[in-house]
Amino acid sequence: MPTLLPKDTELKFPLVTVVDASAGSGKTTTLTHRLAQLLLSKHIPHNGLGNILAITFTNNAAVEMKRRVLGLLKDAALGLPDALEDLRPLLSMNDREIQARANEILEQVLDRYSEFQVQTIDSFLAKVFKASALEFGFSPGFDIVIDSRPLLDEAFDAFAGKIEQGSHEAKLLEYLAFRVFLFRSGDAKFYWNPYKELSKQVKNLYAKIVSTARPLVQEDRSIEYLEKGKKLCGLVEEVGMMIDRSKVVPSAHFVKYRVEAQAEKIDRLIDLQFPDSVATKSKSPQIEFAKFTKAVEPLRAQIESLRQDLIVLHAQTYFQPYIETHRILTDTVERIKRREGRVDLGDITLKLANFVREGAVPDLYISLGEKIHHYLIDEFQDTSPIQWQTLAPLIENSLSSSGSLFVVGDMKQSIYGFRGADWRIMRDLIDGKYFPSAPKELLTLETNYRSGQKILDFTKEVFHGIVPLQVMSGAAQASGLAAKGKGVVETYIFEGKTEERPERDLILRIVKDCLIRGFRLRDLAILTPENEDVVKVSGWLNEQGYEFVPFSTLDIRTRKAIGELLGLLKFLDSPIDNLAFGSFLLGSTFRSRLHHDHEKISAVDLSQFIFEHKHSGERRPLYVAFKDRYASLWDRYFESLFTNAGFLPLYDLTTQIYKRFGVFDILPQEEAALVKLLEVIKDFEERGMNSLREFIGFAQELSEDSDWNIEVPPDVDAVRVMTVHKAKGLDFRVVIVLLYDVALRADRVYMEETKEGVRLVRLLKKYGEADPYLSRLVVDRELKNRVDQLNKLYVSLTRAKEEMFVLGVQYPQSKEPSAFLPGTGYEEKKKSKVTPDPEKKEVRATLLHHSKGAMVKGSAQRIHLEETRRGELIHSLLARIVLVKDDPSSEIREAVKEEGASLRDPAALESAEKSIRGFLKGDILDYFRPHKGRSVLNEQEFARSDGQLFRMDRVVADADTVTVIDYKTGEEQEGYDEQVRNYMKILHDVFAGKKVKGLLAYVDRNVLQVVE
Fold it and tell me: What per-residue string of b and e applies to 384-412 under the rule 16 or more CB within 10 Å gives b?
């Protein structure tokens, strides 16, 4: 892709560069080229590795940018023509110099990778906060949490603990409850537990509260509201008394209004419009009615004025009790954060914004250890005001010392308004509102390198022709959507009222047709509006047997196996939890283990046992009854876990569970989730927490934290199913866009910027119609919602590279966004075959999961990796064989079958089986035959007197002799004898009084060697 960037010698610093990608694509490539230019140039000042920061908004984007930059540097260092062609226009060097410089910088990056700063904005802000943690009263090892609700719950619990009759806290709660009830209406007026309502609303508002660095307006106007409300009631009653004294007949509407006034239901009076006609003129002379109407008119004017005032007061004051509650709890929340070393992400941004605003930029750079001179920001349209309030002073400081700012964005793709993103920041930067003294450079991407011409034409028709005619004035222009041409586009419109699911049948038909024509599953993406739609579409694909990746269900806690293991941990923490233990007993993990071990107890038996225990009236816990009924199962699977719980660290306890139940063997399809659980536990322990109970609570927290999510391999051959938000920044060969008409959602919490600060206004559309001030706020809110809706539509229609299928499902209550789709010109047509993308040939390493415990190895030297794997496979097969009959063939077949369920290398398995068959025909066979009084221990751990554990391959205990057998593959190595002698010494202590023999069994050579 041709570069828009000037050569390094042409750049004059300080410099602000804005790349507007609204008319084309390739912004990620442009950003990659600028970052490479900064790193490689010998003319750009202050361009050390630690002086450059590239900011993205998602982890995936950060990983992708690192991959691209390192790939470009590597290719340049290798002298590849494409890389040199990309860099030649950017650097004042010849190809040999570029190659040498790229090699030098690449070595720097690999040696000092932590200084290679390509990260999300949240990660950067957290890094800055950690560097200055002491300034904020926190230890540097604090923990960052995404979900703030647990912190608020603890603060509310602490507050509730002080509430008692006559206490200050009780009076405060009573006063806050009065204010809450005052502004609520109808049946919602009364609460048995006002404390619960306060807690709920404060948690709901917390994201709003910490999303602005400006103070929240706090004003108690409840008395004014009450006084004006009573005055309104009095005026209504005065009109009623005038009607009573006259001969006019009151209208039904006024009678209803008067009843509410007599009950002093202020909330109802402002909800109801004062009637245009308070009385009818029936049974009244014409002249008398006219006189009555004239007399009532001044009162009507006062009533309407008071009602309007009350509407505004209601809107401005509704959230005040919750804001006041939050203020009261602030000190308690801060104490809890400092005590437990936890800070939520929103609070970090707020504290930093305030800190930077107070002129602490130099202090931050001192804390970081090196000053950042060059900032690069991707997806700049998704920056929130509070993030910008933190970044802007830092950037301004850098610009004052020959630094630079390079931002890339597309205002039409701003779809994170619900998280506080404001595309107007990018617009204001382009217009010169920020950094007016620094030279600005506006670059525009004019060419779309992603989508085919037909797709571009479709998008243009939607946003240039249809949208401006149908949406509110200003919405299409607000983010540039009306300022904006080989592919396939088809549109389909369905009626959503029918019980049939025509969109389901069509999606499945499109997927099938694409596969027939040469596309692969991984070429396809299905975009839907909401997470519940992702689940629904995933179900349709699953019914037809298509592989798919649902991006809304990557949280491992949704996996049945993980839920069962968490249930087992919960039982180990609280053995009296019958539900947790019973759930694990009836789960697929335990059932698979029993089946694998040829245990005859069935799920029906276990269900009957649990049912009988529940209805027997027994008070003893379920596990005690299970221990009595199924003693052998308890000893085999649960005893050691039950004994070690509370003593072993959490990670070690979990690995013991994995080992005890052989989860990687019996649940190979859950491998990724099982590994991820161990990663989550490791990260949890690294935060300084090791309590099993704390972890169970952490696992039960519902949050947007991605710690529990599995990363999806980019090359997995499956249809991607995701929401529009998750599709941001991605592209696919084929995109199916499924749009359901919905009414425009309106957030009732409006953040109004005032001179005093930010006021939270409860904004109802019906109130906006009654007051000009509220009407202005309603229009502004609707404009923002419209822009957000149109931007989401734009993003969904610009992800396809070759083919796009748009399905609109109409509903009577709303005709958008299907109303924006062209009615003609994009009908279904015959499509040609396509060329499949070439398969990427990658060497994959087979994953091996050891179920062995801690083991000390002898002095034998290391052998080749392939030989090691083969040896482990033979050991695993022999461990599955306990005793055999005269012909061991059936036992060998069974062991191979069990091992093959999880092994992905049939050739290795066949080779190992052949060796074992030859091995068990020799002298060793006598140690595999049953004898009276003989017991066999395979892969058994024994402890030496100093506490060290050793795992022995096979121990055969007879009446007066114990034989330890150590399997070996390959040739004899030094140290093997010593290892067996160590085993024999341990067994002398364990089996006192018995003779101990040691054997080295060379499987490949079919040799049995006695160790003296």
Answer: bbbbbbbbbbbbbbbbeeebbbbbbbbbb
Residue 698: closest CA among 708, 711, 686: 708
Under DSSP, the state recorded for 405 is E
- For tokens 């006219």, what's the residue? 290
Residues 537 and 641 in one domain: no
| Strand pairing category for 143-145 and 548-550 | unpaired
Question: What whole-number distance in Å separates Cα of residue 449 and Cα of residue 892?
Answer: 59
State how far the Cα of 796 lies from the Cα of 793, in Å rounded to an integer.
5
Q: Assess if residue 465 is contained within a domain.
A: yes
CA dist., res. 60 & res. 43, Å (int): 32
572/679 same-domain check:
yes
For residue 825, tell me if it sits in a domain: no
Does residue 394 belong to any structural domain of this protein? no
Same domain, 269 and 152: yes
Kindly state whether residues 524 and 567 are assigned to the same domain.
Answer: no
The position carrying tokens 């994170």 is: 416
Number of domains in the chain: 5
As a whole number of angstroms, the distance between CA 237 and CA 257 comes to 10
Angle at 813 between CA 807 and CA 819, to 5 degrees: 40
CA dist., res. 365 & res. 372, Å (int): 8
Structural domain span for residue 879:
865-1011
Evaluate whether residue 829 is within a structural domain.
no
Q: Do 254 and 315 fall within a single domain?
A: yes
* CA–CA distance, 976 with 1010 (Å, rounded to integer): 12
Same domain, 160 and 249: yes
CA dist 283 and 324 (Å) reads 55
b (16+ CB within 10 A) / e for 640-658: ebeeebeebebeebbbbbb
- Tens digit of pLDDT for each residue in 958-1000? 988 999 999 988 777 777 888 889 899 989 888 888 899 999 9
pLDDT tens across 125-167, in order? 777 777 777 777 776 666 666 556 666 777 777 766 676 776 6
Half-sphere exposure of 29 (CA within 13 A, CB side): 16
Query: Looking at the DSSP assignment, which residues form a beta bridge with residue 1010?
Result: 999
- Residue 950, pLDDT above cutoff 90: no
**How confident is the model over 375-389, as pLDDT tens digits?**
999 888 888 887 888
Would you say 520 and 717 are in contact if contact means Cβ atoms under 8 Å apart?
yes
User: In sequence order, which residues have a C-beta less than 8 Å from that of residue 626 and are 6 or more positions away?
Assistant: 581, 585, 609, 633, 634
Whether 186 and 321 map to the same domain: the answer is yes
Query: 117: helix, coil or strand?
Result: strand
530 and 609: one domain? no
Mean pLDDT of the chain: 79
How confident is residue 480, by pLDDT bands cut at 50, 70 and 90? Answer: very low
Do the Cβ atoms of 758 and 750 come closer than 8 Å? no
State yes or no: cis peptide before 817, omega within 30 of 0: yes
